[in-house]
Structures
1.
Amino acid sequence: MAAFIIRRVVWTIPVILLVILMIFVMMRQIEGNPFQKTNRPVPPQVQENLERKFNLDKPPWMQYLLYVKGVFTLDLGPSLYATDRDVMDIIKEHFPRSVKLGVLAFLWAIVFGIPAGIIAALRPNTMFDYFLMFFSSLGFALPSFFVATLFIYYFSVQWQVVPVQGWPLGFWELDSRVILPSLALGLFPMAYFARLTRGTMLETMQQDYVRTARAKGLRWRSIVARHVFRNSLIPVVTATAPLFGLIITGTFVIEIIFSIPGIGRYFINSVSNRDYAVVMGITVLTSVVIILANLVVDLTYGFLDPRTRTSRT
Amino acid sequence: MAVNPREATALQPQPAAPPLPETAGEPVRQSNLWRDAYRRYLRNRGAVAAGILFVVIVLYCFLIPGFWFVPGIWTTIFDIDYNDANFAEVHLPPSLEHPFGTDQFGRDLFTRVAKGGQISILIGFAATIAILVIGIAYGSISGFVGGRLDNGMMRFLDALYGLPYLPFAIIALAIIGTVNFWTMVIALTIASWFTAARIVRGQVITLKQNDYVRAAHAVGARWYRVLMRHLLPNTLGVLIIAIFLELPSVILGEAFLSFIGLGISPPDPSWGSLASEARDAYRTYPLDLWIPCLFIAALVLCSNFIADGLRDALDPRTRET
């Protein structure tokens, strides 16, 4: 187990380096890039100072290494648009809000999605099962911007249950304003978890060890809890890794619709403002978050299912 | 990359299927995989209904506003241009001439939604095909050559998996500079070709161990013949399914980008941009938002059902319980 953990953790480092390299190369390809020289006459001293400030006087590989160093020391340099601020300050201010949104969305998914899937699997082909499958199909197909708009209109404007907009800024601060955005974002993972849990539960219930347990005369309830549920959990845990990417994509749209001052909305604004330092910083940050999430999921997977420790690196 | 749970389960090892009941007394009939698959597909009522609805939506999107050199039904009968503003007819309620009403510039929504769907579907199919072509090339090389190269190529894919879909597509769009049909296709392809590559590689590696592949090697078949004749045709079934799994995520991706305002530029519509325009006036004109969104949802649902039906039809062993 220790060897597995070490191998897996060590492997993450070159992956992060490669991803940073790719983002670095991509960002350098963008036309109208402030890092490129223009025809506009700039006093040579200013040009030189600017180049020194953004490390442009150094060869590209050196710039890359300096950027990597910046990532690991959490210093991503100044923003190009809001010149008095550092990229890291902006991330520190906005990222926790997005994390809160994402975590709450995940909570909806886990708290409602997984139990719904279990109940549906225990009573297949009943009304509840059909209802749930129908509902989860909708969760997949309806775009989140549509659901979010309907939520705002009906819950906030029409029935005035919750305020239209706003977001409690403190990380631990929660009030009624967080319900709609997190629910709109959590609908997809909820449908995903419900369906996946149902599928794997039904599959596990056909395994020989479940039949053996039933033949031994164990109570159905304890079979479900000890044999079926625990073994069905593994695919559900693996499925959370790609979900992180989706949640991050979802926050972009949800933050815009609900005017949440999170990292996704800042990213979109930075794209319009051509603030490449921020765009790059946020992209690297989200990539690293996804890579680390994958790492955690893989480790959990190895913990839950010892067979995977040797085959996966 | 929107992940589909069906995809997740499809990638997991499936339990061995129980032996099929043999129908005694029936004469042995010649059959082939595709005819069998066709029959099995027709037996799945949900998949057939989804297929019909899918075709109806596609026909609506292409025939009503017209495409390429084909004149559109609606645009010809009522002499409408889907991009022409007409301020005398702003926000008309549904009528015979404008079954979906008109928008804030007096443009007919019936043809606009159809044209938007056409653009969304074309982007979806073009990106999906590009994804599959890249996936086949990358996956088959990686799986076929194996060894160090395979390891390296898969590690590279692992790294790409770390890139978040939307920022990646947005950066790709920024690199290309202008936003039009093809740049959308390229951006969406760049951001989501990894899954197809993985599927093809897995399939090639599984197939490589089959006896007929070893037999082909034994009688002296060259590597390209083995690959072209034995390996890739056998991945065809999985790839057809992959088209319908990829399509909804690409269409949703396009809708997201257009919704944020980074997609197809006006006045050309797409379902995402139509929804985005309609959102501000939802209170007074809810229909304008519902229609494009329901079309997106219908297309995504149909694709999912078709993919399900195809999987059951092409590979009965993977049938879901």
2.
Amino acid sequence: MSRWLKKVPLYAVLIVLVALWLLPVASSFLVSFKSSQDFVSQTWADLPTKFFFFQNLSTVLKNYRLQNNLVSSLLYASVGTVVVVLCASMAGFSIVRLRPKFNFFLFLVIYSGTLFPFQMYLIPVYRLFNTLGLYDTRVGMILIYSAICIPFSLFVYRGFYTTIPREIEEAAKLDGCGPVRSFWSVFLPQSLPPTAVVALFQATWIWNDLLFGMVLSRQEQIRPIMVAVATMTGYGGGNIPWIMTAVIFTSLPTILLFVALRKFFIQGMVLNVSS
Amino acid sequence: MFQNVYYSFFDWNGLATPLFTGLKNYVAMFTDRVIARSMINTALWVAFTLVLPATGGLLVAVFVTGVRGAGFFKSVFFIPLTISFVATGVIWAYMFSKELGVLNGLLGMLRIPLKPSWLTAVPLNTFAMIFAWTWQQLGTNMVMFLMGLGTIPRDPIEACLLDGASSWQTFRHVKLPMLRPITTVVITMAMVNSFKVFDIIYVMTRGGPYSSSETLAVSMFRETFTLFHMGYGAAISVVLSLIVIVISAAYIRRMTKRDLLYY
């Protein structure tokens, strides 16, 4: 009994925190269900008089044409992730297995990309994109997103390939596999776990990015989705039920991905923080 | 990157030929009131992200282990991780909004005659945004610490408890020292990330009112891409990067040393 009593304050703290963590989620959903009239005339905790989520959604799609940005972001997230997986797995393989001279140095050079703040290379990239004609193009967006994701992905693949026993590679060599062949038919098929981590983590990152989308694109058709959502807000906050609907709608893909593949997601997160 | 350092010595609007001005951008920076405010805010962000998401993550991880319904509590703190900074910003901008916001609504319900303007009053807006950031980030740190706590062997803890140490003493003298590698990682990353915060500030206040809630990352963006003071923006980013590099240098050295040993 006394042990249980001792835990009461602990539970109290946790419950307060849980309430604090759930309140924003709950009230955001509530707001997105309200019509603009309900929102202004009611207090935050009142239930909406009419379920208005889908009307809000169609208004938002019509007024802000978010579908353009959704398509763009989907494209960036999917193509970008494929590029990243291909480049990073090959680079990881060659650094770990082919052991070029200065392999560790090479790794550090590529890896240093994650250490510097984005702000450091924002201006040069912006310049470069302007001179190469990549500014405000879909190809450019895919390129920059892949480039930014590669260092971390390389880190993951490199870590994974060091755990594959050397004998496997030797066996492949004896069977007459060159490095390319042994990468394609021996290493790549085994790389499902790191690929899942990388793909999930980077696709989410690309989907959620704001800064690069804002700096490197201008046209509505090119701008990724989070830029579109961010520009809906302003000092006054805009029409809050609409914005909240857009936020919930555009967050759905990442939330679903997370729920479905939680294990890989957490693994990626741990790696990302500790990398 | 080197190009960026190079640009920082020029007065340049992105179109015309850059004009070499030497250290003028840097000198201007240290006399700019806006940048001074921005530096104070950056310092606040760094200091409080050490207290809130990092220490908070540790406390929550400790609390959650050995409590009934741990799975539920953990998933609650995971929720914000799935959504973007933009979404977090929008949600908390609504929570903090003055007239129709949830927090002021709650205060009204509790009959507390306060109606703070969370996002426009000057240091309050920075603290409000740090709180939103904490809401987003706590889960990550909790996962890290949970992982660390999971690797601690049971034996020394049991030995301690047998010797009559209280649970606080065990935590302070056994668990905490054993968590040190994880703590270093979390603290370094928390600091480095707090220098880079951009999305939340941009969405919640646009750095305003009158640039009062900017951090260096936001100031750099405003100078460069809204005012097109490319050289000045580059100078800000150089200073920002230097600070980040100095902080992470010690950490990187440790990491590479460990890595070389591993080979």
3.
Amino acid sequence: MKGDLLTVKNLRVIFHTYRGIIKALNGVNIWINKRERLGLVGETGCGKSVTSLSIMRLIEEPGEIVDGEIIFDGRDLLKLPESEMMKIRGKEISMIFQEPISALNPVFKVGYQIAEAIAHAENVSMKDAYGKVKDALEMVGLDWKRTMNLYPHELSGGMAQRVMIAMALVTKPKLLIADEPTSALDVTIQAQILKLLDELIKEMGSAVMMITHDMGVAAEFCDKIAVMYAGNVVEYAKTEEIFENPLHPYTRGLLKAVPRIGRSEELEGVPGVVPDLVDPPPGCRFHPRCGDRLDVCSSKKPELVEVEEGHFVACHLFHGGVRT
Amino acid sequence: MNLIEVKNLKKYFPIRKTPFSKPIYVKAVNDVTLDIPKGSIFAVVGESGSGKTTLGRTILKLLDPTSGRILFSGQDITDLKPKEMRAIRRKMQIVPQDPYNSLHPRKLVKDIVGEGLKIHFKMRSSEIYERVREILGYVGLREEHMFRYPHEFSGGQRQRIAIARALVLRPEFIVLDEPTSALDVSVQARVLKLLKDLKREFSLTYLFITHDLAVVDYMADRCAVMYLGKVVEIGSKDDIFYRTSHPYTRLLMNAVPSVDPRNKKDKVIPKGEIPNPVNPPSGCPFHPRCPYAKGICKEKEPDIVEVNEGHWVKCHFPL
Amino acid sequence: MEYQESERISRWRPLIEDLKHTMYLWRKNKLAMIGTVIILGFIIVAIFAPVLAPYDPYQQNLHNRLAPPSREHLLGTDQFGRDVLSRIIWGTRIELKIIFLVTVISTAIGTIIGLISGYFGGAVDEILMRITDMFLAFPSLVLAMAFAAALGPSLTNAIIAISVITWTVYARLVRAETMKIKSTLYIEAIRALGAGTFRILFLHILPMTISPILVQMTLRMGTIILTAAGLGFLGLGAQPPTPEWGAMVSDGRLYMMNAWWISTFSGLAIALVVLGFNLLGDGIRDILDPRLRR
């Protein structure tokens, strides 16, 4: 379970609250190869955002990374001093967020913020950086003369996301983390943004970790998909595999719940509720909601194992690589 | 028989630069005519600025119409005064979009759901308690949930509380404003199924506002597609999906990311931004982004054309 | 039925949870704790004044006037031989009465005006806000002095005067909150249910304004004491021989050189209680801050 660009091994993250300790990430394993696009799919509370923030080392109190390794390009990011991490953040690993207008600084013009990103990325002065803002804005399809002088609140959602993309990609990062980048956008705008990302990523040769709850976006954009539930990766495979041959009961339940145009069968939800992570279920965290659970599921946590080529599942039903 | 009839409805919001200058108008709903048959699920689909949310609220008279008529069960309710509306309100309810904000944060569930009964009926508190308990049972919540605050619940549960609140008065018509947009996919599936079951159980009529075409396919009988305050296409669900007539509808369907990974066809990606409803384009509002636009589209607003029975489109060159 | 939920909870759980969370945040906030201790002390002293005070605060002893702090009179005696400590202790009751009455009156007036102004907007809002502005235009102490002087110097009139200058704070606050709340989804939902204006204003909007009102109330209490002390100092508040702290500071002015303890200890009492309220108010504001809570 190793990627030649990023390998996250056994990541454990907790949050301290008055009610107790939230065990947000319970040994997450993720890996991405160079130029690969991984979709991190899951519902609220599964830990996908926490995972991405951990990779960027942006977890703050009351959160704490308590175990695991994040090997990026040969170095363990968790062992780096903050000064070294700052050289990686925004340069080798970039991130774009869900609400683009809120993610930009409201008191500075767009041109200034892009110049700032360029100055940081290429280690040049602001003056030199300003010269490159035009290229950056044209790269994302915006009218640079006009857009440079606007404030974030004067942009539409689509325009703001393009600005964010410009700021993230101007540094030609090795890895782009996109946290629900189109969830707040209209459908037609989402299509434009995804196409833009597709073209630019190909050009830059970056790898992408696309976090989304929208299975359609994951299907269209990503090569591989990791499904997360309650702090664990429960299934990891190529996109076609996930959709044609889902193995984990949660993945199957999720796919049955997605409405599709032209689909005639009844939708089915997943029964039960997402567990309380202060006192999570023992063993497999999905077992209380699982229709196929075995006795062992309530006592032993299933590990992520390769069951078919390139297809990994964390489920006792597939013990030892053999479907029981 | 039509439960709701909307005729040439307009809702404009004035914006003034100063309290004394002449206002400019956001034409949120700009001449909409539609009929909602009794017992149907009528979907209204659109993106930001389409006016679908404003339409829902105006039909319920939560906003005062600028012009046009609204009929409920044949009765013209457009000009009714607040006192007269009160009796009608019992029969038309809303389930708002955001379950995290649609319930009063400082009230217990039993008071939130029971309030409607207190307003409209003179009931003993024991009776109210019983009715609340009963309706919560229908949406899958238990008696003890009555004594909790909204923040104790997940999004899906909160939405069910909002549904219970709307149902407790036994209305005939419910406006569902993006009821599942804020929910996870697996929760959405359960809530949508619940809505279908409740419709059958209580003989309801729904106006279902959404931006998600897949949900429309699952839920709706009839559908209206809105763009910048106007209805551009209206028809049965099959008309909209299989006899698509308006270029915008086609564009919308193409833009939805397909869950079938083999379907990575070359799609027509829509160009341009959605215009501001303050300054809609001349002629057909969609012409700047329409791949089939011709000269006339910029000059003249299209007439309404009947494509097949019950299926209308507002376009110079229907597909 | 397919939709049944699987948890069992008791009726009181949500309230207890909320309280536990509040206590946790309270304990974590050191300044709030200090403020709480001071104010609790203040209230306890006021309640147990008859037991705690070693002497009768009105008891004069002209043989022992202007006596410095000693074992019999821990804080000395004033110009009439009255025990300063006892007067300060009994003074807590006066201060408490002032704070309580002013707060109740000004909060009531201000909240009603704020609710009406914020909810109805338009001309009603304009008129009410201009009236509020009129009151705010004057420096508060000057206005209080004017009222107190016009009505005649007495404790009751001082209370009225201070209420008159304090209500504006609540009016503005409640108006701002009301304007925010009236456009929320849950208010819209209740309108859709057919609720009338009265119900919406008092059963739905008002409960939501209680947190900010509570914070302001606590922060204001310090100011109220200071204003009352100021009025007392000028002779416009409680009249002698009532042991009001501001009046005591004023009394001691003449004797600052040779009997510094009269003004000083009274002044310190004022300072300590004001500090306590300010710390408490800050603490409450932090605790009630919705972002920190959830």
